[in-house]
Amino acid sequence: MSSRSAQAKTPTPRSVKDLRLGESGTICCLEDPEMALKLLEMGCIPGTQVRLNSRAPLGCPITLVVGDEDYTLSLRVSEAATILLKD
Amino acid sequence: MARATLISDPTGAAASALTLEALRDVPPRSHRELTRIALIGNPNSGKSSLFNQLTGLNQKVGNFPGVTVDRKTGISQLTSQHRAEIIDLPGTYSLYPKSLDEKVITDLLYDKVSDQYPDFVVITVDASNLRRNLLLFTQLADLGLPAVLALNMMDVAEQHGVQIDIMALQQELGVPIIPMNARKGVGIAALKIVMSRQLGAPTVSFFEPSEDLLPMIRQIRYYFNLHNDYLALHYAHQFRQISFLTADDKAYIAELVEKYDFKPTPRQAQETIDRYARINDILLNTVTVVRTEKNEPYSNKLDKVLTHKVWGYMIFFGILFLMFQAVFAWASYPMELIDEGVTWINQLVQTNFDGPLVNLLTEGVLAGLGGVLIFIPQIALLFAFIAVLEETGYMARVTFMMDRIMRKFGLNGKSIVPLISGVACAVPAIMSARTIENWKDRIITIFVTPLMSCSARIPVYTVLIALVVPPQKVLGIFNLQGIALMGLYLLGFFAAIFSAWLLKLILRTQNKSYFIMEFPVYRWPRWKNVGITIVEKVKAFVFQAGKVIVAISVILWVLASYGPGNALEQAETRVRATAAQQQLSAEETDIRIASEKLENSYAGLFGRTLEPAIRPLGFDWKIGIALITSFAAREVFVGTISTIYSVGQDADMRTVQQKLAAEKDENGQPFFTPARAFSLLVFYVFAMQCMSTLAVVYRETKGWKWPLLQLFYMTGLAYVSSLLVYQLFK
């Protein structure tokens, strides 16, 4: 969250929402401060790798595999959009 | 297999021995007092399995003092002389509560002087997911509470190639660790021995509040006489939500927070990040992961089918169909048995005793009790299904598939289960809404579920449809009566969805609606857990809802059996006189007397009083009485109508229909015109005529606000719709 101001300079920061199925990314920061608290507790710490595991039949919600443990997190696309990725 | 793993695993066995060795010099607790132990852990960490293993059927559900959330406690026999009270706390990921459920934890753990304060906590941790599970542990340890770590699901960790050096971990964490497999009962004995001892506070701390906060923390500590910095920090974070603080206390903290410019959100975020960094260090020294190549979890493969865009929905509807089948068809046999049993007892009482008290007992109490007991098979079966779906982890997938659709209407993926169950009976359906964490989504679900057409409406539907809809074929295959019935179910469903959408616009909530949840791994259900769930739900229903239902049926009985002054006696003499004149049979005379008495009873009086109000709907005072009596339960309608229209109580449906068809209005025309019948049908689709539902909503929302709102809303909806139908079609 501290790097939020730095992020603002890049025109369109990629978020977890933009991952393709099976693609991985590394979390850079969390945008929504209130939601960040929940996501942090669930293991979405900046620097952690996440992989887009599946989408619900109607495209939302999605599931992510967080970190190197076999731990699957389900969240809505609007929530995934607040998790920004490193390039 | 897991037992063998634990014993053959040298580290695990040695660690247990070390734990017990270290405790040898510690004196056992005094045997006189009951040790109070709180059980806490992440969702899906096996907490309820452990709770069930420790307490079995010695469980009871009560309220947390002052909080509207269930509190589950149980008694555990730790050793032959030592018993403990185990408090089951809601599953949570951290000590910063996000929901009403989780607030219970902070209220319990932050008030040291409360008589509910636990002597120590047992923290369950999923060994296959240590990193995330240890977050809660480190927070609890920093509160300074004596703690034991139940390192659960060792078998799963093993399968994942996770190797834990338990001795080293115990050293790093500073509390006794018991490796276990709660589902199979492995490690329970060792845990019980540790639990029967006097434990000290954890010897390691994991997080120090930053230096600049110390002046504020010191002031809070001094003011509240707190024993540690971290607890004081939590007061600063959460004072608004802590229920035992007085207004003055809160004002004091608010002032400090202002003075020191304390920003809770970034502080909490930083704390979580720091804790994870520390946990990573600890795990680096104590855990090695040996990854086997073919490590795609079988859960993922199952998910490819079970959440597939075609198969996923088909399987889900298949399961729903099976559930309906169970609740409608399979449950009917035990329900008949219960019905017969109650009738048998009723007759036994009636043939052996006499007097007004006996009538109260048979027509009031026993009739009411029968109305409660008859639902037991449906409740048991429905909860068996739901418990299995929960236990296996499938429910999370259903939620996942339905969330997008349900959200549009202010509901939640999880609302689908109560809505579907509501077609059988709203009572267990509303109870199953507990799986919805979000307060607003849950309230909306509870509010709209009774609009789904339950099985109690079927007798009313069939009688009235048969009366006014001809049994004609449409398009060769469809039956017009069937279409009418289907239309009524759809009407109920759309009313539920529309009401949910309406409520979504009205309700305000301070809790943000998240859908961030863990996707649990598929597991076989533990039948013991399923069994305990069934027993618990049935018990809750019979005792909690039963009390209210019996009370109401007694009141209704009194209203229908007594009238002002000696109106009933006069009615009887009148009927006897005319009956003698017309030379009616004794049986027919009795039926006439019953009908006449009902008309002159308080219930009849209410019917008369009600008449002006329901006349615009096309109803007369006779239907008014039926509306009043069937307020307790819809199926009473047919019985009441039979009595009023002078049909014997046990007459079959066809005679009821013939009587209804024969009923004439003041002009000598048939009373039940299609307009009247449809008006009545629509009334029964919408009106909240079910004491059991009101009682269960009262129980689930812990207050009269929601059941009363529901009553007024649904009755209002019924009234307006009936009015429209009658005025448009008459």
TrEMBL record, chain A:
Q: Which organism is it from?
A: Hymenobacter cellulosilyticus
Q: Which UniProt keywords apply?
A: Iron
Sample GO molecular function, one term: transition metal ion binding
What name does this protein carry? Answer: Ferrous iron transport protein A
The UniProt entry, under Pfam families, shows:
FeoA
Q: Which InterPro entries match?
A: Fe-transptr_FeoA-like, FeoA, FeoA_core_dom, Transcriptional_repressor_C
Domain Ferrous iron transporter FeoA-like intervals: 14-87
Automatic annotation (TrEMBL), chain B:
Coarsely, its chief localization is membrane
Domain FeoB-type G per the UniProt entry, residue ranges: 34-201
Which keywords accompany this UniProt record?
Cell membrane, GTP-binding, Ion transport, Iron, Iron transport, Magnesium, Membrane, Metal-binding, Nucleotide-binding, Transmembrane, Transmembrane helix, Transport
> Which residues are GTP-binding?
41-48, 66-70, 88-91, 152-155
The GO terms describing molecular function are: ferrous iron transmembrane transporter activity; GTP binding; metal ion binding
Q: Which Gene3D superfamilies match?
A: P-loop containing nucleotide triphosphate hydrolases
Name the residues that span the membrane: 310-331, 365-389, 409-431, 443-470, 482-503, 541-560, 677-698, 710-729
Its membrane topology is listed as: Multi-pass membrane protein
The listed locations are:
Cell inner membrane; Cell membrane
Binding of Mg(2+): at which residues? N52, T55, G56
Give the matching Pfam families: FeoB_C (PF07664), FeoB_N (PF02421), Gate (PF07670)
Entry annotated with the keyword Iron: yes
Instruction: Return the GO cellular component terms, semicolon-separated.
Output: plasma membrane
Stated role: Probable transporter of a GTP-driven Fe(2+) uptake system.
Q: Which family does it belong to?
A: Belongs to the TRAFAC class TrmE-Era-EngA-EngB-Septin-like GTPase superfamily. FeoB GTPase (TC 9.A.8) family.
What name does this protein carry? Ferrous iron transport protein B
Species of origin reads Hymenobacter cellulosilyticus
- Gene from which the chain derives: feoB
